[in-house]
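Quick one: structure for this chain?
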Amino acid sequence: MSVLVVAMLVSFVFVKNKLKIKLILLRMIGRYVKAKKREEFLYDLCVLYADDVYQWVCHTLRDELEVRRGLKLYLCDRDEVLGADKPTELYNTMDSSWKVVLILTHGFLASDFSSSTMSMCLSFITLTTPNRLNLIVDVNLKIPTNIHFRSGVC
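Got it. Here's what it folds into:
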């Protein structure tokens, strides 16, 4: 019985900390991978949202984070280059952002880019930026329980 409990605890620790364990193992064999620092990025936060929360993001959230707290935000409606290829622009922005904030609403999930945006967000979770993705979920949004994120973070 005690062996089973120990095995369950060890598995839980491995599952919850798999990126950290990979990083430790790489360091042990001499392949040092260092986590990127906040100062190495152009933006502190890349905020991804749909048009239905535009007012809240561009006024309330921006005032709180950019004006009061001094963070440098990337907001699509303000910083996106006109005429640029949207997926390429999104990729470059996420790559140059310390954290990515994804605001999940009905409008976001109904948009054409929701699936590719979520996939791209998950692909940016790496050994050097393990806790990069932050989700803000609308309380009225019913997310199916059978969604599985394979990154180990969500």
